[in-house]
Amino acid sequence: MSKLLPTINSPHDLRGLTVKELEQLAEEIRQAIWELACKRTAHFASNLGVVELTLALHTSFDFSRDRLVWDTGHQVYAHKIITGRYKEFLTTRAKGGLMGYPNPAESPYDLFITGHSGCSVSTALGLRCGDDLLHPDQKRHVVAVVGDGAFLSGIVFEAMNNAGGLKRPLTVVLNDNKMSICPRVGGLAEYLDRLRMNRLYTSLKNEVQRLLTYVPVLGDPVERFLLQVKDAVKAGLVGGMFFEDIGFRYIGPVDGHNIAQLQKYFAMVRDFSEPVLVHVVTEKGHGYKPAAEDPIAYHAPAPLECENGDDGHPHGLAALSSSKVAARRISPKSYTQVVRDTLLEQMRVDKRIVVVTAAMCQGNMLEPIRDKFPERFFDVGICESHAVAFAAGLARCGLHPAVAIYSTFLQRSYDQIFQEVSLQDLPITLLLDRAGLVGPDGPTHHGVFDLAYLRPFPNLLVLAPGDEADAAAMIRFALEHDGPAAIRYPKTAARTLPRQSVQFQPGKAEVLREGLDGALIACGTLVGDCLEAAERLQAEAIDLTVINARSVKPLDVQTIVAAIRRSPFVLTVEEGILAGGFGSAVLEAACDAGVDCSRVCRLGIPDRYIEHGTREELLADLGLDAEGIAASCRRMLQGRLAGAARTAEA
Q1: Which CATH number do you get for residue 552?
Q2: In 36, 176, 260, 459, which residue has its Cα 20 to 30 A from 501's Cα atom?
Q3: 518, 545 contact by CB (below 8 A)
Q4: Known catalytic residue: 305?
Q5: Distance between CA 89 and CA 31 in Å, rounded?
């Protein structure tokens, strides 16, 4: 049972705790994180790795007035626990519970919703400059915490370049655990390794740290002298110090699990009048052996198999820190696997096909491709814009790149999709995993905008498979197509529609059933729910047509307009934002054909951000499951009947 945690209602309650008590609190926080991971899928290893860092930050700064920005905010569980949300913590990532990322609606200690990487230094610098303009008399510290995987993002260096030129006080904490979700890649990653592993520098750092322990008062001239000596020798050992060359004072590496050491360094940098980068070394999964040994598997595992004791309560984290406790991994075949397997199949027969991803090898299940064809697999790190532009270079050489990036993250490549892919009309296949609602990750990760942001581009095919067979057929077609194509698919188990065979052609929809009482035109995998809704309504003597659109651009205008002409009502169904999405494309086609659009209604994501919950819960709330679709059809039929009655009375 936790002894200290129930007494912590805000970071101010940490102030009277000794280092030993803070270390005990760190273990209690890990226990709480483990209990959450036993209930539902949650970001696990990353949060275990930053517990001491979080406590050191909150005991060194006063973030009720100072500023703290978390990059890639999935590592904020300890932060949430100590900022007044401990009692609600086990609701994290459950519908109606706490978000798994920072959320200003939950706490004033959360300044931004951060679900992807790279923006913390930019927003922190904006806070610094904004506070200087609006509150010049208030000395506020501004801190950004960025992981070494996120640190590779180009926007981080754009911000650091700006900060180095402005020379404003700003603390950037580089949380170096040698990982993003998968092992980090690139020259900068190797540079950080050299900083951490240089024996001469490490010895010097340890000696300086030992001497600093004898300096009782921070800011003492002796301490400043020691820092200057350390920095001078460090510059000679490492060779110019990249960070210092662009205007940042470099401090570190610092042991990220040593609270006392972290507190001393944070107290030191509070007095700096220039930007400073504090290089903190942590271990992902720290305190839980299986997660520390395999942080990839324990990034966001399925609920852990947590044994219960004689009293029915789960054993503690320490007792279960062994290989016998593992994440559940049995799951039905997903669309991600279907796409991966088809890619692998095509790569065996076509040597022109290469795969590019942006630090999402695990999420896109690409490990077999990486292992089978390492020379044709490129992980560029969390750099989506670069990934797409890089693919354009590959394509210009005569290769056919398949670029696998989550739908919501591909938005970062918008200009490259325009300039380097669509405008050049290059053979590049964009694979948009996690299209639609992604469940507990919430609004930062829902891939609901892709149809709206991809539809405007000339030359680009936009495809949405209705089932597993469609997905495989579209991949095969796109990899042979001499132009760009985008294929979107959801994070869910793959379905199989009841039909004899699949013949895919862009711009050709598929009529799955025919009826005279109305039509459902489905975009993507919700076609299965449309078929189920039609079967339910068949029992009520309502006979519906169901069309699997498959191709969003080009649209099968002939089939769709014909359905609108002959049907008493038409309902378009999509797992995407309504503004500019598939339903809008249908209305545009009907309008251009001079067809009465009053019989067409659109069902999809409304003009608001959708909170977290399971995909099934969210689809039901939005009326996008079979029951919701059937209910919409009933309302449209009732509306048509009421309209006809009014016309008859007139």
Answers
A1: 3.40.50.920
A2: 459
A3: yes
A4: no
A5: 12
| Single-letter residue type at 513 | R
518 and 477 inside one domain: no
- Decide if 505 is inside a domain: no
- Three-state DSSP at 403 gives strand
pLDDT band at 151 (very low <50, low <70, confident <90, very high): confident
Domain boundary among 445, 472, 488: 488
Q: How big is the CA angle at 599 (ends 593 and 600), to the nearest 5 degrees?
A: 75
Q: Is the peptide bond before 374 cis (omega within 30 degrees of 0)?
A: no
DSSP string covering 109-169:
T--S---SSS-HHHHHHHHHHHHHHH-TTS---EEEEEETTGGGSHHHHHHHHHHHHHT--
CATH number at residue 448: 3.40.50.970
For residue range 315-329, list pLDDT tens digits in order: 556 555 544 444 444
- Total domains, the chain: 3
Longest distance between any two alpha carbons in the chain, whole Å:
96
Q: What is the DSSP letter of 338?
A: H
Q: Which of 517, 538, 536, 530 is nearest to 637 (CA)?
A: 517
Rounded distance between C-alpha atoms, residue 620 and residue 626, angstroms: 8
* Residue 376 domain flag: yes
* Active-site residue, selected from the candidate residues 52, 223, 384, 468: 384
Under DSSP, is residue 322 helix (H, G, I), strand (E, B) or coil? Answer: coil
For residues 240 and 152, membership in a common domain is answered with yes
Q: Which of 412, 434, 599, 615 is the catalytic position? A: 412
The mean pLDDT value for 483-499 works out to 95
List, in sequence order, every residue forming a beta bridge with 315; answer none if it has no partner: none
Residues 482 and 519 placed together within one structural domain of the fold? no
8-state DSSP, 382? S
Residue 546 and residue 642 share a domain: yes
Please check whether residue 278 is in contact with residue 173, taking contact to mean a CB–CB distance below 8 angstroms.
yes
Q: What sign for the dihedral angle of Cα 628, 629, 630, 631?
A: positive
Residue 328 annotated as catalytic: no
Whether residues 423 and 530 share a domain: the answer is no
3-state secondary structure of 599: helix
Confidence of residue 116 (pLDDT cuts 50, 70, 90): confident
Q: Which helix (H) or strand (E) holds 562?
A: helix 557-566
Split at pLDDT 50, 70, 90, the class of 194 is low
DSSP letters for 405-462: EEHHHHGGGHHHIIIIIITTT---EEEEETBB--STTGGGT-B-SHHHHHTT-TT-EE
83 DSSP assignment: I
529 and 412 assigned to the same domain: no
Distance between CA atoms of residues 520 and 570, nearest Å: 6
- pLDDT level of residue 199 (50, 70, 90 thresholds): very low
Q: How many CA atoms lie within 13 A of 545 on its CB side?
A: 26
In a domain, 134, yes or no: yes
Q: Which of 85, 128, 234, 284 is catalytic?
A: 284
Distance CA 16, CA 436 (A): 47
Burial (0-12, 13-18, 19+ Cβ within 10 Å), 137: exposed
- In the residue annotation, 384 being an active-site residue is answered as yes
Residues 86 and 196 grouped into a single domain? yes
Range(s) of the domain holding residue 213 = 5-281
Q: Decide if 144 contacts 181 (C-beta within 8 A).
A: no
Give yes or no for a cis peptide into 183 (omega within 30° of 0): no
Contact 48, 36 (CB under 8 A): no
Calculate ∠ Cα 132-135-140, nearest 5°: 70
471, 429 contact by CB (below 8 A): no
Global pTM value? 0.86
354 and 419 inside one domain: yes
Domain assignment of residue 506, yes or no: no
